[in-house]
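Notebook entry, structure prediction.
Reason for the run: the old model in the group folder had no record of what sequence produced it. Starting over properly, with the input documented here first.
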Amino acid sequence: MSASESATPRLFAEALAAPHRAVRASAAQFFRSVLACVEITIDFLTCAFGMFAAYSLEVSLHLGRQIQYPMREITTASAVVGLFAVLFLQWNGAYRGGGSLLQIRETERALRAPVQAVLVLGAFSLLLGVSFPRATVLIALLLIPVLLVLQKVIFLWIVRTLHFMGVGIDRAVVYGAGGAGKRIVSALFHSLRLGIQPVLVIDDDPAINVGSILEMGYRRLRSVPVQRGPITPELLKSCQCNVLILALPNLTLEKQTEAASAARQAGMRLAFLSGWEMQEQQWAQSMDIDGLSLTPKIGPHTSWHYGIAKRMADVIISSLSILLIAPLLALIASLIRLDSPGPAFFIQKRVGRNGEFFNIYKFRSMYTNAPKYEYSPTMSRDPRITRIGRFLRRTSLDELPQLINVLLGSMSLVGPRPEMPFVVQDYTPQQRQRLQVIPGITGLWQISADRAFMIHENIQYDLYYIRNRGFFMDIAILVHTLVFAIRRSS
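New structure, fully documented this time:
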């Protein structure tokens, strides 16, 4: 789980920017303010340009009824789309500073907000009885999200370059190398708009290995060294940082006071997360009963229309994909049969939603005498893998038959990866939360560098998806999966 979409915005928007410490606004804070204004302006211009370009494409391609509209009306409509897109982005927290795990939420917002804006324009035109070219609306629904996603990629690249040059950066020390500390470090790396760079992790626990903490990401390129505590003003001053983050949710009051005193003596700002926030009770809601505040834990909730839209997309995409790649499926099946004796398909029991068993379909990539229920090979030279199997596993082509599972409803295109029964039986209560949703072919874990390790050992990816899933997030994950596949093959 990344703290960036839940705890991080509260942590830095409230604690770091709090005026009660009488800390003069730093150059980094001013940079973040300017950055937010620039981003809002660019988003508005991108969406407005996309709407104008959609009309221009309709005219140049001779689509629709070919009615010439006054330029003033087209310009006004473009401005309205840009304005509403920015409002929807703001409403969805796009400018609050916190990034997301693998930048999925950024892509989701960039896909969803312009679609909502164009639909609002269409609704207004119908209510006001204003005629507006439908072909332009359809083109805009496809064009503007693409333009906005590309613009966001370029914008974040520019911000990352500026940070690399030392512009707009606050240096931070993280106190705590446990699970909370790891999530905070990863969230900071992915929250480019915050401009807070973790440079050191300190922990008093003698059981903590002194080494480094790696980010959760596509390649896990960045890391932060871990040093054993205790925290002292001298240690903090030697780091040349201006932010101290307390990432120990159960830190005693005495330890909090000591850390706050050390930070004050070192001239650093202090930020912390409460224990409740770090317990990840993301599905809790408070009830007030006769003056008593009760916070029961409830299950994840999704709208009924999301379930219907997700199932419709699964059926349409899986059926069309099977028809389009049928020759490829037949070719792969023939190569498998020629390469080694045995069936082309591999069928295995997996655990799906609510712990129900189902048969998963894959192309056989190992010899028939290999144990059917055993941890999958992690090395391409594993003797259990056939020659064609190495290629299939490297390219993930062995997963293509799971489109049949998607069509049957036992799997979805996007969701947590299903595991074998002998693995699930040893799940912890936290890991069993993966079973609340339909498993999928692809997901956050599958496109991360942590796919080299066990699924249940990296539960943060699936928990993040379960909490935030929606139709546009599914599309965003599919887009990232395509980009990830292209990167791997390049």
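Summary: The CA atoms of residues 392 and 404 lie 18 Å apart.
The old model has been moved to the deprecated folder.
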